[in-house]
Amino acid sequence: MSKKIPTSRVDKLLGSMGYGSRAEMARLGKAGGIVLDGADLTDVSKRIPVTPDLPGRMEIDGEPLDPVAGLVVLLNKPLGMTCSHKEDGALVYDVLPDRWRRRDPAISTIGRLDKQTSGLLLLTDDGDLLHRVISPKRHVAKVYRATLARPLNGTEGALFASGELVLEGEDKPLAPAVLEVVSPTEALLTVTEGRYHQVRRMFAAAGNHVEALHRERLGGLVLPDELAPGEWRLLSEDEIASIFVS
């Protein structure tokens, strides 16, 4: 049995994607600002099939329509930005198109990087994907590059891999993590959990201090070298699937 294709009024669809109110979409349609399959779509009360190929068939003010649903953004998060909708200061959402803040469902970060951590960050309006990535049952690996205040003492690898390390203020041991030494004061750490400030607290438990922290990989998805801090791009279906490939 074939899956039924959902339909939506054009003004309601565009409103949920953050383009504007129904009244604004009505004015835009009458002005020739909405094009579907090469023809002006002036009646925004018209219902249309919401198919995956719609962004390739519809233009808004001369630009291709945004992805309708399941939008997944890869951001190289710079230092100093917060993964929040409401806090003061620079937010990760500031680098995205303004209209995306008005999308319904809303765009949220998949997990968080603290203000002083940079690197690979995903944002999405797909709640199911978000929960799959952060679910403890999935064991999605996260790889961080840590620059340390003091040289490694050689015991950290065994401690982190033991599955017996209990962070200060907690009573449940951490899942085993893998340490790869890059230099005396730099290491890659692979963890499968997302506890509060986990990597920083792990090195603190080993008697060291993290001076810089950068996330390089999530599952099988690697932060591309060509994506500069503050830059973002949409992920393809294959790239989304790679998150769950270790």
Description:
GO terms for molecular function: 16S rRNA pseudouridine(516) synthase activity; RNA binding. Belongs to the pseudouridine synthase RsuA family. It is an enzyme of class 5 (isomerase). Helix 1 (10-16) packs across helix 2. It is elongated and about 70 Å long. The chain contains 7 helices and 15 strands. The mean pLDDT is 95. The protein folds into 3 domains: 7-64, Roll (Structural Genomics Hypothetical 15.5 Kd Protein In mrcA-pckA Intergenic Region, Chain A), CATH 3.10.290; 72-136 and 221-243, 2-Layer Sandwich (Alpha-Beta Plaits), CATH 3.30.70; 141-218, Alpha-Beta Plaits, CATH 3.30.70. The two termini are 34 Å apart. The relative contact order is 0.14. A hairpin with a 2-residue loop joins strand 11 (178-183) and strand 12 (186-191). With 246 residues, it is an alpha+beta fold. The strands form 3 sheets. Strands 7, 8, 9, 10, 11, 12, 13, 14 and 15 form a 9-stranded mixed β-sheet that branches. Strands 3-2-5-6 form a 4-stranded antiparallel β-sheet.
